[in-house]
């Protein structure tokens, strides 16, 4: 055995202890921190795990299993990643194994049974290439060409091969794909066999990978305007003193161009850059803009890539196996887990966006906050960008934690869009509504189409109708597994639960009184699409929501159609509210602002302001002034009036006053404990037990247990307990006390059937 003959292994399990294995002598020098290894757990299960520590302290148990094998020649996880995993597990109150499962591409996480061999899921993509059998001299090659005069197909194949390989006498040649050669030569697959038998050509397999590199000429960076140049110098000055800056710039103020100059600075220093975006839909336009300047150095990472593609991106960011490095990575929240080695800058665009928060499963992390920790571990700088920053981030600038840089003018001095409030209640009363559209919105759309301009309509609810209702007794079809109504989807002729995915056929009769003719209530994006086609039959209409973007390239296809002017009206959910930069887009319609505001969440008004401000910013981003029509039944609403004037500061002031009065973030920390059970009575008993224990420690800082708005999901009843902690108090001790209270509950008789999850910063 080696001197350090034990290894602690992280396994992708929700277990907060550690697993220790013996290191056989044959692994001496081969196993390091971050290595991926295969181990057996229990009597039957095999897992791949990550080595977190090598030591010589034997564990208390007698039977110590050895490592079975080392899966990679090099560690796939580096030291900084292990530190980040450890911080996330501690901060978000989960196991390191759960962080590992979220971080690693699934093809690197193996699982199987001891009696069956476990094989790697990821296999490098290889293709058949053609080369000369030996380095023929120019004289010998001419003889070979002459000898093929009577075999015209073979002569053509060899001639095309020499051309594709870039043959120069005495020079090096590029390998040529067999399929490409045969296609260019117009030859069948068997046609090459004669050249192989004659010893002229040779076939070999070579790894090619699944990722396509940018191969067009690069463009120089654009010159910054005086306003952008001022902002850049302010950022550079802040970075001499602070690690993080908030870039608060109105929509279309040129924040992305600033990011490009900051990225260029870091790449010239040999550093890596992480550029986070909240929505996959946003990456399409940003990728195109960045690749024009940084070409093949640019990588993209998000959930729409296949598992094998994600492994290849992982290897290229980590510089593994001589893969061509990605220096700049653009991605959604999971991109922060990539194996960066030399990170110089982290950009979190639209930093306020709720999509950065992972809801389920654990770790329930906020990618913005975790990215700032990642940057600090690398000694890198961070830029948070937004036209309507989160209350917490803006508060951090006022307290001096972050620097603040503002861009108050749109690029090119383009005016902010004109915002019109359309009173939908009054329009309904006067019978002026056409379907779900007010006269003001219809007029704006009509003018835009007449001028060959484009329109987007925002409705933050997908499907045709949120629910069906019996007009006689009020019965509504409900999900059989969740305490929610089923959403009607006309396109697939089904009722669908948006929480668990359950679907059923459309009932022909009321399930309560038996009367026929259920009626649709409310409207979603699918219904708006149907009705806008009736009102404007000649318009080319498209829809972007979760239902139309399930395919790998669906985002790109829909956006390309909009950019190329092939779509006149785009209808969508919040996917269309951010990042779109379309020159000819002049009209934005927000169809139901009340739906955003009337939500039981302390951040509802902040998020409503941000969403309306963001979607408004899509209009009139070039020479034409945009127009935004907000349909609301409450035009006097305070938040809507603030959107009307793009008045972020007063929104911030009002929200801060309310949060201070009711002790909400940023004046406190929040931890939500969700208790779930299939039996409602047992859930009530166990959640009351846990709340009593917590109240004994925390007193009035404990709120609940209470049922959430959706009190049952997938047959599990839910109750929440909210812990509010003073901002200035150390939170680690409180987390320890919460963990102990949960452990105590789980020892109670019958508690093994409970599910308990903890969500730190659940907002």
Q: Determine and state the CATH class of the largest domain.
A: Alpha Beta
What is the CA–CA distance across the termini? 50 Å
Number of helices: 22
Taking all Cα atoms into account, the compactness measure Rg is: 30 Å
CATH level-3 fold name of the largest domain: Rossmann fold
Question: Would you write up a description of this structure?
Answer:
- The chain is α/β, with parallel strands linked by helices and 763 residues long.
- The chain folds into five domains: 6-113, GIY-YIG endonuclease; 126-207, no CATH class; 226-412, 3-Layer(aba) Sandwich (Rossmann fold), CATH 3.40.50; 414-464 and 523-657, Rossmann fold (3-Layer(aba) Sandwich); 668-760, Ribosomal protein S10 (Alpha-Beta Plaits, 2-Layer Sandwich).
- The chain is 32% helix and 21% strand.
- The chain has 22 helices and 32 strands.
- The protein has a seven-stranded parallel beta sheet, with helices on both faces. Strands 1, 2, 3, 4, 5 and 6 form a six-stranded antiparallel beta sheet that branches.
- Strand 21 (494-496) and strand 22 (503-504) form a beta hairpin.
- Helix 7 crosses helix 8.
- The longest helix has 19 residues, at 680-698.
- It is globular.
- The mean pLDDT is 90.
């Amino acid at each position: 055995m080696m001197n350090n003959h034990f290894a602690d292994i992280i396994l992708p399990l929700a277990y907060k202890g550690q697993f220790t294995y013996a290191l056989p002598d044959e692994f001496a020098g081969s196993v390091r921190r971050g290595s991926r290894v295969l181990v057996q757990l229990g009597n039957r299960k095999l897992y791949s795990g990550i080595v977190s520590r090598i030591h010589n302290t034997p564990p208390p148990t007698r039977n110590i299993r050895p490592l079975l094998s080392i899966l990679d020649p090099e560690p796939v996880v580096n030291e900084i990643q292990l530190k980040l995993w450890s911080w996330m597990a501690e901060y978000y109150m989960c196991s390191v194994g759960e962080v590992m499962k979220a971080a690693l591409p699934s093809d690197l996480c193996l699982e199987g049974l001891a009696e069956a061999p476990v094989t790697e899921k990821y296999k490098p993509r290889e293709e058949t290439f053609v080369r000369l059998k030996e380095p023929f001299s120019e004289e010998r090659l001419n003889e070979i060409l002459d000898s093929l005069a009577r075999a015209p197909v073979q002569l053509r194949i060899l001639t095309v091969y020499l051309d594709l390989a870039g043959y120069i006498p005495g020079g090096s040649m590029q390998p040529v794909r067999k399929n490409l050669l045969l296609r260019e030569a117009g030859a069948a697959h068997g046609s090459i066999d004669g050249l192989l038998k004659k010893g002229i050509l040779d076939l070999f397999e070579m790894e090619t990978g699944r990722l396509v590199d940018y191969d067009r000429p690069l463009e120089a960076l654009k010159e910054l305007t005086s306003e952008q140049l001022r902002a850049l110098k302010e950022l550079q000055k802040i970075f001499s003193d602070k690690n993080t800056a908030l870039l608060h710039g109105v929509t279309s103020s040129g924040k992305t161009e600033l990011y490009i100059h900051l990225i260029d600075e870091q790449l010239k220093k040999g550093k890596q850059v992480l550029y986070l975006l909240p929505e996959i839909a946003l990456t399409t336009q940003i990728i195109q803009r960045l690749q024009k300047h940084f070409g093949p150095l640019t990588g993209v990472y998000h959930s729409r890539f296949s598992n094998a593609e994600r492994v290849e991106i992982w290897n290229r960011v980590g510089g593994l196996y001589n893969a061509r490095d990605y220096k700049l990575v653009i991605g959604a929240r999971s991109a922060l887990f990539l194996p960066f080695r030399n990170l110089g800058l982290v950009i979190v665009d639209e930093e306020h966006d709720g999509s950065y928060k992972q809801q389920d499963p654990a770790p329930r992390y906020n990618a913005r906050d975790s990215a700032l920790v990642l940057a600090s571990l690398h000694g890198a700088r961070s830029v948070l960008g937004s036209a309507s920053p989160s209350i917490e981030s803006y508060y951090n600038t006022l307290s001096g934690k972050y620097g603040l840089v503002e861009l108050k003018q749109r690029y090119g001095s383009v005016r902010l869009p004109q915002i019109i409030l359309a009173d939908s209640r009054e329009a309904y009363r006067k019978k002026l509504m056409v379907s779900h559209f007010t006269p003001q919105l219809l007029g704006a759309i009509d003018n835009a189409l007449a001028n060959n301009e484009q329109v987007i309509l925002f409705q933050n609810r997908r499907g045709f109708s949120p629910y069906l209702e019996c007009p006689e007794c009020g019965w509504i079809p409900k999900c059989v597994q969740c305490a929610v109504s089923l959403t009607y989807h006309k396109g697939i002729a089904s009722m669908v639960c948006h929480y668990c995915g359950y679907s059923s056929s459309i009932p022909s009769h009321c399930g309560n009184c038996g009367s026929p003719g259920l009626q649709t209530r409310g409207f979603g994006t699918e219904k708006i699409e149907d009705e806008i086609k009736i009102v404007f039959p000649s318009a080319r209409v498209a829809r972007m929501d979760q239902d139309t973007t399930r395919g790998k390239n669906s985002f790109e296809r829909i956006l390309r159609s909009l950019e190329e002017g092939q779509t006149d009206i785009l209808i969508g959910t919040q996917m269309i509210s951010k990042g779109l930069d379309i020159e000819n887009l002049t009209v934005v319609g927000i169809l139901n602002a009340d739906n955003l505001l009337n939500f039981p969440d302390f951040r509802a008004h902040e998020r409503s302001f941000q969403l309306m401000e963001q979607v408004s910013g899509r209009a009139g981003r070039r020479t034409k002034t945009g127009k935004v029509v907000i349909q609301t039944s409450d035009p006097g609403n305070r938040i809507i009036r603030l959107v009307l004037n793009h008045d972020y500061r007063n929104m911030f002031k009002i929200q801060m006053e309310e949060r201070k009065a009711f002790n909400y973030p940023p004046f406190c920390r929040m931890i939500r404990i969700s208790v779930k059970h299939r039996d409602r009575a047992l859930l009530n008993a166990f959640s009351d037990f846990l709340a009593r224990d917590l109240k004994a420690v925390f007193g009035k800082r404990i709120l609940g247990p209470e049922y959430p708005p959706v009190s049952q999901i997938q047959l599990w009843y839910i109750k929440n307990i909210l812990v509010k902690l003073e901002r200035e108090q150390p939170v680690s001790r409180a987390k320890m006390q919460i963990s102990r209270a949960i452990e105590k509950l789980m020892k109670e008789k019958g508690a093994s059937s409970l599910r308990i999850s903890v969500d730190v910063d659940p907002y």
